[in-house]
């Protein structure tokens, strides 16, 4: 049985400014990732860094109308012996309009357009249009419809992760020849008070999937299904959430089932806010049956099923001061044995404390406010 260890570190610096013309947000982020795979035959390691800079400006131009413009820059870099990197520059604009009196109630229309320029991939335009209506005659009823496109380039790990050895043979992981995914998605939703129901339909060209290493699935893959959710304050101090997703189809253009896509998933959580500074939360996730592949020692393959497990996590956060919060988490409270990818064991029950496991969110804020101008400066790590 192979095992994997993942370490992640996130740091961000944020700036917030408000005046009579616009609301401006700017940020700088750094994300560091370390992954180690161990088996009886070999150990492989991967280290990567993602640096981000960006800003956006929200400019109102009438009651219920605004435009959002912005730009961002990302650099993806592999830090180990395989020195690889690429960068992405993006600009975007989004327009939002809100109208009243159309068939009774309130109608909101949003259109978005984005352009991405990559150092090692083709440049691409993507966009989205959405329509939402809050009904007047049936209080609590909201309907919406959305259509959008997306362009997803491979990650550093998918491109350059070193190969692993198995029984004296080398098995690839990263694939430098991966093509980006292009996606077309559609969804329609109906919500009534605390309950919502959505149908989604997604088509993906060149879907990136892990088989023997990362590869593109040939042609157009299709995923569609239903999602039902319920959220309610069951008392003054308790918040309850649950959602259920069912996939009608998850297959490639030849009708083969996509790997590791559970037909049914359920997520539920309950949060307690009865203490003045302490928040407690309990969440559970059920993953239903899903298809996977076994890679046998003779290099043949056979089909298998994974899934059918439930994970329970406990979280707590405490507000030390106005600008400082401590957060802790116990993952896999029931010590469930499960595999996200067949043959790779995942973490047993663990308490997230100390440098590697406890997450500390520290907010250092400087407010310089006067009349219509306000600035916020914050650091998160």
TrEMBL record:
Keyword Membrane: yes
Protein localization: Cell outer membrane
Segments forming domain TonB-dependent receptor-like beta-barrel: 15-333
Protein name, as recorded: Outer membrane vitamin B12 receptor BtuB
Cellular component annotations (GO), alphabetically ordered: cell outer membrane
GO biological process, alphabetically ordered: cobalamin transport
Membrane topology (UniProt): Multi-pass membrane protein
A Pfam cross-reference name: TonB_dep_Rec_b-barrel
Species of origin: hydrothermal vent metagenome
Keywords linked to the UniProt accession: Cell outer membrane, Membrane, Receptor, Signal, TonB box, Transmembrane, Transport
């Amino acid at each position: 049985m192979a095992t994997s260890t993942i370490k992640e570190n996130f740091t961000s610096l944020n700036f917030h400014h408000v005046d009579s013309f616009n609301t401006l947000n700017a940020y700088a982020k750094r994300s560091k990732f370390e992954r180690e795979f161990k088996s009886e035959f070999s150990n492989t390691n991967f280290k990567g860094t993602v640096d981000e800079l960006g800003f956006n400006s929200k400019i109102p131009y009438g009651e219920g109308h605004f435009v959002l413009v912005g730009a961002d820059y990302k650099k993806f870099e592999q830090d180990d012996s395989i020195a690889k990197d690429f960068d992405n520059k993006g600009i975007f604009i989004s327009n939002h309009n809100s109208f009243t009196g159309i068939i009774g109630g309130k109608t909101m229309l949003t259109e978005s357009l984005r352009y991405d320029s990559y150092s090692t991939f083709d440049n691409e335009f993507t966009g989205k249009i959405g329509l939402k209506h809050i009904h007047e005659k049936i209080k609590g009823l909201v309907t919406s419809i959305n259509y959008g496109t997306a362009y997803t380039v491979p990650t550093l790990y998918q491109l350059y992760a070193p190969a692993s050895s198995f029984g004296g043979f080398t098995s690839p992981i990263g694939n430098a020849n991966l093509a980006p995914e292009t996606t077309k998605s559609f969804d329609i939703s109906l919500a009534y008070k605390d309950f919502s129901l959505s149908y989604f339909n997604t088509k993906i060209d060149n879907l990136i999937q892990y088989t023997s290493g990362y590869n593109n699935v040939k042609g157009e893959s299709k995923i569609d299904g239903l999602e039902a959710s319920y959220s309610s304050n069951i008392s003054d101090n308790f918040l309850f959430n649950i959602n259920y997703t069912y996939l009608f189809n998850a297959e490639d253009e030849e009708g083969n089932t996509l790997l590791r896509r559970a037909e049914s998933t359920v997520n539920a959580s309950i949060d307690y806010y009865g203490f003045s500074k302490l928040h407690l939360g309990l969440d559970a996730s059920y993953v239903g049956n899903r298809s996977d592949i076994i890679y046998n020692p003779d290099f043949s393959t056979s089909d298998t099923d994974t899934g059918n497990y439930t994970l329970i996590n406990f979280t707590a956060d405490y507000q030390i001061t106005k600008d400082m919060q401590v957060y802790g988490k116990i993952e896999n409270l029931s010590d469930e044995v499960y595999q996200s990818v067949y043959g790779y064991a995942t973490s047993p029950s663990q308490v997230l404390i100390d440098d590697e496991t406890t997450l500390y969110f520290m907010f250092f804020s400087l407010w310089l406010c006067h009349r219509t101008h306000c600035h916020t400066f914050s650091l998160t790590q």
